[in-house]
């Protein structure tokens, strides 16, 4: 099936989509700018084995739009964008990242790029060698991005538990953390410090062992984590995890985690709602790194991680209280709130 790119852009209100190609390095990919009405577009650089161009194009559109919503809900002076690079044999990746960097430099700051899947410190350093419009992974950059995300997830859990029971009472809670990487470990540490019973899973055995040793995390099998009985299930591994089948296996009261696009499609949020499981929208709770990055690049300050957690907690609290009052799925409430804001800013910019 083909993608009618201009129709898709018009439907979603995109400003710009660029096809990236460099014969010398073998680079192929897309850069999407969804919205810059409030400030530059922020978005990560994702490198992935896409089946074909269509899949890559759809991913850049979906992810860039989600970034605008994230920035809008957190009331940041920024919009949303994304870069997707197609993983394939024979690409000279250092040269490809520098090519992308030169493109970002020519965009003059309309797009500020950051890390994402398969684009870590080494790749960012290549981009940063030729442009300022990327997150510097070293001393000169914002730093503590995963910690900021972990703080947001943890404080998001507090807001979610209060919405369920009136208090957070971590000492009486069991939380399953799926994925004990940079963010998952930060979440597990905060939970352990507050006396919660933390169960943890990771495909990498050494990460589970480290979490057990350092934090007293109780290991659970990676295949069974999702179906483990608990108060909160915290997906901190990969997105797309919850779909029509997996939603039926959950045995938790709430889902609060860092993974992007936890719901394979919006309808899955409705299924969670029907099952009485409170879902804290990923694009609210995992916004910590974006807050830290935007305030660093736009305002020139390193916002303290705890302040970022508190900001996310407050936004989530208002989303959840509205969702409870309306009896509506929180993901739909959050998306509608964000879209209303963006529409209002766009209307104001036209006058
Ligand atoms: P990471 O790569 O440090 O950790 C991910 C961990 O998940 C790894 O230890 C990996 O072995 C594990 N894993 C993968 N598949 C698994 C499975 N099926 N079951 C159990 N464990 C599995 O990544 P990081 O930075 O901690 O990010 C976690 C998630 O949060 C990702 O989806 C990322 O896109 C998202 N996110 C991260 C942000 C950040 O600031 N790092 C910001 C916003 C979203």
Plain-language structure description:
Strand 9, helix 8 and strand 10 form a beta-alpha-beta unit. The chain has a six-stranded parallel β-sheet with strand order 8-7-6-9-10-11, with helices on both faces. It has a five-stranded mixed β-sheet with strand order 1-2-4-3-5, sandwiched between helices. It is 48% helix and 15% strand. It has 13 helices and eleven strands. The structure holds 1,4-dihydronicotinamide adenine dinucleotide. 1,4-dihydronicotinamide adenine dinucleotide binds next to helix 5 and helix 6. 1,4-dihydronicotinamide adenine dinucleotide (NAI) binds next to helix 5 and helix 6.
Secondary structure elements and their pairing?
Blueprint: H1 5-12, E1 16-22, E2 27-33, E3 41-48, H2 53-73, E4 79-86, H3 93-107, E5 111-114, H4 121-128, H5 145-165, E6 174-178, H6 182-193, E7 197-201, H7 205-215, E8 218-219, E9 232-235, H8 246-249, E10 254-255, H9 266-274, E11 278-279, H10 282-285, H11 288-299, H12 305-326, H13 330-350
Parallel strand pairs: 3-4, 3-5, 6-7, 6-9, 7-8, 9-10, 10-11
Antiparallel strand pairs: 1-2, 2-4
Bound molecules: 1,4-dihydronicotinamide adenine dinucleotide (NAI).
């Amino acid at each position: 099936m083909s993608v009618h790119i201009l129709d898709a852009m018009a439907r979603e209100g995109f400003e710009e989509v660029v096809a990236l190609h460099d014969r010398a390095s073998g680079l192929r990919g897309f850069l999407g700018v969804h919205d810059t009405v409030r400030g530059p577009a922020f978005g990560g650089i994702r490198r992935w084995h896409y089946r074909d161009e269509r899949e890559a194009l759809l991913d850049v559109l979906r992810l860039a739009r989600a970034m605008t919503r994230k920035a809008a809900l957190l009331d940041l002076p920024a919009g949303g964008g994304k870069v997707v690079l197609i993983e394939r044999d024979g690409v000279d990746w250092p040269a490809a990242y520098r090519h992308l960097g030169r493109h970002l430099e020519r965009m003059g700051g309309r797009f500020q790029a950051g890390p994402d899947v398969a684009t870590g410190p080494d790749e960012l350093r290549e981009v940063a060698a030729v442009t300022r419009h990327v997150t510097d992974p070293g001393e000169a950059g914002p730093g503590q991005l995963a910690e900021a995300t972990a703080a947001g997830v943890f404080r998001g859990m507090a807001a979610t538990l209060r919405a369920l029971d009136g208090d957070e009472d971590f000492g009486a809670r069991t939380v399953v953390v799926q994925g004990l990487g940079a963010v998952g470990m930060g979440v597990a540490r905060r939970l352990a410090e507050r006396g919660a019973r933390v169960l943890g899973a990771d495909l990498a055995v050494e990460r589970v062992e480290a979490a057990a040793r350092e934090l007293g995390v109780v290991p659970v099998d990676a295949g069974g984590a999702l179906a483990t009985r608990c108060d909160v299930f915290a997906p901190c591994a990969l997105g797309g995890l919850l779909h029509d089948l997996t939603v039926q296996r959950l045995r938790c009261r709430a889902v609060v985690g860092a993974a992007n696009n936890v719901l394979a499609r919006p309808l899955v949020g409705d299924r969670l709602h029907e099952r009485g499981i409170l879902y804290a929208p990923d694009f609210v709770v995992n916004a910590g790194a974006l807050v830290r990055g935007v305030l660093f690049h736009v305002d020139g300050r390193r916002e303290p991680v705890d302040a970022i957690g508190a900001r996310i907690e407050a936004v989530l609290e208002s989303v959840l209280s509205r969702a409870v009052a309306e009896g509506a799925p929180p993901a739909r409430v959050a998306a509608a709130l964000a879209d209303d804001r963006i529409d209002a800013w766009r209307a104001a910019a036209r006058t």
